[in-house]
Structure formats: C-alpha cells, structure tokens
Amino acid sequence: MGIDGNTIKLLRIPFSFFLMPLFLFAYSQADTVVHHHALFAFLIIHLLIYPASNGYNSYVDRDEESVGGLEKPPMPTAALFYLTMFLDFTAIVLAFLFVNTLFAFCLVLYIAASRAYSSRQIRLKRYPVIGFLTVVIFQGAFTYYMSIAGVSESALMLSREHIYVLLACSFQIAGAYPLTQVYQHQRDLKDGVVTLSYKLGYRGTFLFTAAMFLLCNVFYYLYFTSKGLGMVFYIIQVFFLPIVLYFSYWFYLVLKDRSEANFRNTMRMNWIAAICMNSCFIILIVINRIPLSYISAIETAVPEHCYSQETLTSFYMNSTEDITNKRKIKIVAGKTGIANRYSVIADFDKAPEDYQFFNKTATLLPEPTLTQRMQLYQEHATELSISAIKKIDGFAEMKGRLTHLITVTCTGLFAPGLDVELMRELDLNPAIQRSSVNFMGCNAAIIALKNADAICRSQPRAKVLIVCTELCTIHFQKRYNDDYLLSNLIFGDGAAAVLVTAEAGSDYAHHVEIDAFNSLILHNGYADMAWQLSETGFIMNLTSYVPDLIRKNIKPMLEKIGLAPDAFKHWAVHPGGKRIVDDFVAALELDKGCLAATYDVLKNFGNMSSPTVLFVLKQVLETAKPENIGNRIFAAAFGPGLSIETMQLRYV
C-alpha cells in the first residue's frame, strides 16, 4: 500500500512548530553546545519523532473531526502505521550515528511513552490523571532533558537550578495541554476517553491552565534568579504578555458562550503561544550565544625570600656612607605604606661577605651587569610563573584545552622567551597560539586582558592563559636620586596567572564578566614614568609628579567616557605607590575602605609592576558575597608614558 498525500498530511509536520519552544529553550540554556549534533537532534525530534507520534495517534484514533493541526483530517490507512514505525526506527539509528547514545536512549523512552499513551492495548490517555501526567512529564521535563542531551552531549545534572527549570517546563505543558482538549470533550467520551479537561469543565480548564502557567512562571523566576539572570525572566514576561492577553480574552468569550471553546480558537491560541515562545527563546539563544569573556581564575605566586621593609631599607642605607642619603632613604621608606616585599635575591638580609648576587662589598661595587641580571631573570622567571599557574584549580586536566598563551613582563628578556619555556615545562599544546606583552610596565596586565577579551569574543571556545611575571628587585641600583629613592623602596617580585574564557565558569561567588576597557595617555607625563636599559640593568624614571598627574586626570577621564564612581561597588586599583593610591581616592571622593585590597597588597607585597593589579583583583573577587550579584568592578593601572589603563567587570 503506497504512501499518498493524505498519509503525509496525517503526520501533521507543521504541528512540530507548536512543540518547538522547549528545544529552543534547552539550546539557549545548555552550558556547552555541539552545533552539528544540535542540528541533527533538532531535525530528528521535529521531522521524525513528533510527526511519527502524531501519525500513530491519528492511526489509532481514526479521527473524523478536527484534530490538532488539521480541521478536516483524512482517514488513515495501514501505510500510516508502517510509516510511523519507519520514522521511529530511522530517528533512533540517526541519533546513535550522528548525535550520541544518551540522546538515542531518550528517544526510545519518549517513543515508548507516546505509544503507551495512544495505543488501544494500554491507552493511558483514557485515564484523566495518568494520561495528563504522562504528557506533562514527557513533553515537558523529559523533552528538555532529551534536548540538552542532544545539544550538549552530556546529561543534565540535577542541581537545584536544573530542577527548577525541569519543573518550569512541565508546568508549561501542564497549562497548555488541557486547553488543547477543551473543544473535543464529547468526541473523546464517544471513544471512551475521559480527559482532565472534561473533568474540570470549561471554566475549570481555563482556571487550571492559569494556575499551571503561574507555577511555570514561579519556577522560571527561581531558575533565572538562581543563575543571576533575573533580567532574562523579565524579558520572557514581555513575550508571555500577548499569550496572557489572548488567553484572558478567550476565557471571557467562553464564559459568555461555551461554543467559543472550539477548534479555531484553540488553534489561534496555539499559534499565538508558539510564535511568542519560539521568538522569545530564539532571542535567548542570540543573547546567550553572543561571545563574551570571563575571568575564570586568578592565582598568584611570590619568591621564597620575604623581607621586611626595615631589612630592605637597611640594605639600601648600608650601600652609602653619605649621611644625607641615609636620612632621605629612611624618610621615604617610612612613607611607603609597605611592610614586606619579596625577592628572588637572597642577599638583602646577609652580610656582604655572604652575598650571592651583589659584589661582596658594603658599597656593592662594581654593580651587577645587565647580563648578570638577565641570567638571574631567566633562572627564576619560569619557575615563579609555573608556581602561579599550577595553583589554578584543575589546571592539569584543562591545559590541553588552552587555546592561547599571553606572557607579560618588563623586567627581563631572553629568547626563546618565557612563553616557550612555559610551553615546554607545562607540556602545553605545541600549536597553542602565543603572544607577549613586553616592556609596557605596570599596566601591561590590563593590556593583556584586553587582548584576551578580544580573543574570547571572536572565538566562542577560547581559553586564554595570561601570565604576568616581574622580578623588579634584580634591577636594584646603587643610586640616590629621587627616582631611585622611590623605585628601590617600593618594588618587589611576583607573578600572576589569569584564565580568561569565552564561557562562564569559576569558583568565585559569581561569574566575572569582562565588560569594557578604556585608555588614556598623558603626554605631559611622558618623562615622569619611564624604563630604560643600561649597562648595569634597567633604569627607572619615577618622579613625584606621577600622583599629581593621576589625581588631576582620572576623574575627567571617567567623565569623558560617561562613568560615575558611584556606579562601581568594588575597586581594584594598582598600588603604584601610597601617594598614588591616596590621590586616586581623593580625586574620586571615595572612602579609603573601597580600596582596602589595594592598600593591603601594597603593604604585604609592594609594587610588583604588571602582576600587582591582579593580586588586588584576586583579593576583590575572593571576598565577593552572594548579594553582590550584578555589581560592577573598576580596575585601573598606570604605566610609562604616562598611560592609564582601566577595565570594567561585572558579577553575573
């Protein structure tokens, strides 16, 4: 017996449009999406499974009156039965071959439930409660679960938020399903089927539907707020509004005249609901699949040698016999706000005869050469970097999935560089894309984050590892001018590793989304912060005018880009020096408590150049609280030029 047009018509393929919202919703919410598998899953469900279920139901019921999607259905033949079997078999085979085993197994269960619902032998649909629950569970929560399996190749973990969304999906179907039966009470009774809608009556069906949709909304609210996405819930309400309005209007008509509970009004309700919900979830897909970038982890490391500021001050003072210089060193040291600094150099608390790096004389002469300093950098930079990187939770399992490596430093150079050394020592993918930000000073970490942000926004699966490593103390200079009174007394050594990803994920209280970057070059500070090579190491220019330049320009900079200080609840500011931090606070009229992390890092580590702002940001992120959801974070660092680099983040 051949397959004719009437047989195809009874599959009611366009009816799949009404059942599409839950798949689109699952696609929008899946943590990961395997797009080609998602496409196969979509086609299998909507062009094979749903039509086969419709066709089987039509074959068993032999409808002579209107049925969902068809106002005047033709009579089925045996060809329809065999076609539904073929579609089911094809769907399962394709699922195994082109999607995954879990998805295929879910299809088998869905088909079994569908057949049990309609078949004459079991006929679950004739029982008002059991039939209703079968539809609610399998077309609601189970369909969402099955769709997630097809989209992401993994089972949905039954966390609290996922239980909320499964309940929301089931209550959504619980509201819609009795409404689709409201026009066929008498026909169902003739067939021995007592539906829940018949039990409830016309008025009761509409009231029940309203209650189910209310519960659906409650669980949508709990789901989205538990994920910190309360705004998405309100977006959904906008799309639900036309549905509610037509539902209310139709209920009004039915209360006046029961004949309004007819096929045409039911289909009109279905079309409005399907168009609104499909549109809503397509928009959620667009929103959720727009590439973003997140800080997923920040870890830090310092060398083994920790020195008090008093110890380092004594070392500096002992390098000169000039009383005036000694007095100036002591005065400046007392104003730095620093208690401890770290160094790869073991000499600072030793007697001259025990020095390992400096010349074994109190005067430190002759000073170490640039070659000696670079050898020390090469000896320690990789080891210190690895110490920070390995603290990243799950790094060993994740490292094979890293797509990019960005190294940052301004205190040492060698080739092959730090990036290649890290690849060798950590056994990273030899094809990883790498780049370096070199010699850009204290704000280079934000520049590296800007590059990582651009990568993640263009590559949806990007995982970028940023490593900032600075050994500032290897450039200690036997100089006593104002620049070196500052630099010798504030700089320390440290490293920070940051994982920036295109997909949200972290161990912090909230996901940390990178929002925006802004830059400003103050040309009138060109010579006030500079960094140059010399025969005896790197020479620092750091004048006392830097805090004034920052104080006078930071507020105009924020005003120019339309940012108000009170828009930010959290601050991660590079502690370039105590006066810089104090003047930053004063310029923006902030309470010093807002920069508690900045003052703390300055006190316990000093200024470590590029990683310092990451030490501060790490402390800010680790002290976040649940109620901080939606709060914004402002980060800033200052470098040669004089340049100001800022970054805005958000807890989501």
Structure in words:
This protein is of the alpha+beta class and 652 residues long. It has two domains: 18-284, Farnesyl Diphosphate Synthase (Orthogonal Bundle), CATH 1.10.600; 294-651, Peroxisomal Thiolase, Chain A, domain 1. The protein has helices spanning 5-10, 16-19, 21-29, 35-61, 78-98, 101-118, 128-152, 160-180, 185-190, 196-226, 230-256, 263-289, 309-317, 323-334, 370-389, 395-398, 418-426, 444-458, 482-490, 546-560, 578-587, 596-605, 612-622; strands spanning 294-301, 305-308, 340-343, 404-409, 433-438, 463-471, 493-501, 512-521, 529-534, 537-542, 570-573, 632-639, 643-651. The strands form three sheets. It has a nine-stranded mixed sheet, sandwiched between helices. β12 (632-639) and β13 (643-651) form a beta hairpin. α4 (35-61) runs antiparallel to α5 (78-98).
Helix content: 40-55%
End-to-end distance, in Å?
Answer: 59 Å
Give the percentage of residues in beta strands: 5-15%
Q: What is the C-level CATH assignment of the largest domain?
A: Alpha Beta
| Overall mean confidence score, pLDDT | 91
CATH architecture of the largest domain: 3-Layer(aba) Sandwich
The SS-based structural class is alpha+beta
Mass-distribution shape: elongated
CATH topology of the largest domain: Peroxisomal Thiolase, Chain A, domain 1
The tally of strands reads 13
Largest sheet: 9 strands, mixed
Uncertain runs are none
